[in-house]
Amino acid sequence: MIYLDYSATTPVDVRVFEAMKPYFSESFGNPSSVHRYGQQAEAAVDAARETVARVLNCRPDEIIFTSCGSESDNLAIRGAAYAMREKNGARWILASRTEHPAVTKTLLQLEKYDGFQIEWLDVNEHGMVTAESVAKAICAETALVSVMYANNEIGTINPLRDIAETCRARRILFHTDAVQAAAYLPLDVQELGVDMLSLGAHKFYGPKGVGALYVRKGTPLLPHLTGGGQEFGLRAGTHNVPYIVGLAEALRLTYEEREQRAAHVQPLRDKIIGTVLETIPDARLTGDMTSRLPHHASFVFKGVDGNLLLTLLDAAGFACSSGSACKTGNPEPSEVMNAIGLSREWGLGSLRVTLGVGTTAEQVESFLSALPALVEKARSLSRR
Amino acid sequence: MSGGVDSSVAAALLKEQGYEVIGMMLRLWSEPGKEDSNRCCTPDSMAQARRVAALLGIPFYVIDAKNVFRETVVEYFLEGYARGETPNPCLLCNRKIRWTFLLEHALVVGAEYMATGHYARARREERGKVELLRAVDRSKDQSYVLHVLNQEQLKHALFPVGDYTKVEIRALAEKFGLPTASRKDSQDLCFLAGEDYRDFIRRNAAEMLQPGEIVTHEGKVLGHHTGLANYTIGQRKGLGVAFPVPLYVLAKDAARNALVVGTQEELGTTELTAHHVNWLSGEAPREPFRAEVKIRYTAKEVEAWVTPMGADQAQVKFDAPQRDVTAGQAAVFYQGDLLVGGGIIQ
Lengths: 384, 346
What we know:
The complex is a heterodimer. Chain A is of the alpha/beta class. Helix content of chain A is about 45%, strand content about 15%. Chain A has helices spanning about 15-20, 20-25, 35-55, 70-90, 100-115, 130-135, 160-170, 190, 240-280, 305-315, 335-340, 345, 360-380, and strands spanning about 1-5, 65, 90-95, 115-120, 140-145, 175, 195-200, 210-215, 285, 295-300, 320, 350-355. Chain A folds into 2 domains: about 1-5 and about 260-380, Aspartate Aminotransferase, domain 1; about 15-255, Aspartate Aminotransferase, domain 2 (3-Layer(aba) Sandwich). Chain A is globular. Chain B has 3 domains: about 5-190, HUPs (Rossmann fold); about 210-265, Adenine nucleotide alpha hydrolases-like domains (SH3 type barrels, Roll), CATH 2.30.30.280; about 270-345, Elongation Factor Tu (Ef-tu), domain 3 (Beta Barrel), CATH 2.40.30. Chain B contains 8 helices and 16 strands. Chain B has helices at about 5-15, 45-55, 65-80, 90-110, 150-155, 165-175, 195-205, 265, and strands spanning about 25, 60-65, 115, 120-125, 130-135, 155-160, 210-215, 220-225, 250-255, 260, 270-280, 290-295, 300-310, 315-320, 330-335, 340-345. Chain B has a 6-stranded antiparallel β-barrel. In chain B, strands 8-7-10-9 form a 4-stranded mixed β-sheet. The radius of gyration of chain B is 21 Å and the shape is globular. The two termini of chain B are about 35 Å apart.
């Protein structure tokens, strides 16, 4: 099998795994305990927090550890929405149409049960949000703007600095879901100008089940997981020490090796994009040509059932993904495909190929020589 | 794979025999909002099948067949009732969906054979032909629904559970550590979601339910019916006609939209004509032959003469009159364990 789905998840880096190991059975203490077992564990969490803060160029007490990227998004959005409403009655939230479900489903719930009003920002045909559209939509009652750093399905990178600047000028909170971006893009929150930023460790060779949220000092935030006073009272629950250590080590390595990693995947990615568009009829690149994650190639094929194509690819030994993460054989074009204006005929036939440190030129060659025939087969079966 | 015991054990047996096995499940059509009740592919059975595949260590794929199922099987079902027949859509599903659509997908994925959990046997002859035989467990035999297969399909067919009794299959399931629950052995059609077919027709083809006359063979009008599709051949109750002796539905005259009824004595028939006959060997026998004939999935086979007429028709003469000979159902011809052919009753 050849793994070409690094945006879904990545293997844990062995160096990360090594760093985590002592915190399962040896240094197993609860960081909240007074004794030395606890102190040892607390020191590990503090060190992890400092490491993350260094990469993000922020203060350690601006980092909240969570259980995953989705939880980080939930905490940021719910927490800020409730706190801002309490503070000044704001009830509007702006978000792009191409956000991850961790954001969109959260917003839909706030709309349905809590009286918030959501304004969905349109994207251009490449899935990009512009600062102008944000500026146009902001009003005095806006509690929060949430725009993702880079899109999971089509790899498009949003102009984060411009959007953050627009929000800051109007003194509106700005959150970004950086879960997909973290493996390859700079995360300096001062440079980016964001107020909150979500991370999930397993997208950058860390373990699943741990995430982080950057919250700029002074940002009003109401906790939604209540209990003990962990994480500055913003996220209760006993610290998942080995995983927090793992997240920090994975992020540190990513920060140090980011350029090498990008230099490894980008030429392979470009080769995939070029060859697919050249050799496969009725194929289109989705997302932006230049402003896109360096490991990310995504396409739509006209008249192809994307799920069927994934089945054929898997049977042929290639693990890829599509826009609609659907294992039930019940295909619908994803929201992102709709948002970038693709018809059903195109939107159902999406394919995402994402590379990583384990990807080799031979694997890419092998994939590219198999794909055209598989698309053709899927197309002829889908036509029935 | 359905997640049930039969297809699960089928997969396990093949794995044990050294095949490289891939699990597949069809996503069939349901009325919007009733997806959870489709007998063949509820989210539950899908999860179960996925679990079984994981236990066996084989890949598992769900193939979307909603549109093709709706366009062929459900259409056929509705059209059959419109013609005054009692259609058996499972037959068409086996021919067009399972053994055409799914088989094509399996072959494209690289499979050489397609196996199912049907109780039936495929015997490979030396000359390259494949014979379809009844299951070892006669009480579970499902060859009836497979009479639609042609040689090309049979060439790719494996029925691993057909050599065992249901009791043995359960024991094998335990041995393999597989779930032993079997799907309720029901005649209900998967897309009816456990409801009466009449409600389905009311919702999806209400225009078909035109009231008309209830008449005798002689043409005497006895009353009115609520739409031919609401009745089945042999039905006695619910006719709403006052008559000195009990009346039974004898036939449906779709051309006149009339329901023909009569007494118990008129009910039986000694012959039928079948069309769309499939001869399993690939060619029609030249001579009339003795056979045991099954006129419904659940009917007991009865002795008869079968006379082939042209390539795809046959006349069946029963030794004794038969009740419940129903247009739209299949008449399937056996000689001992061998399935010779079968067609749709006209």
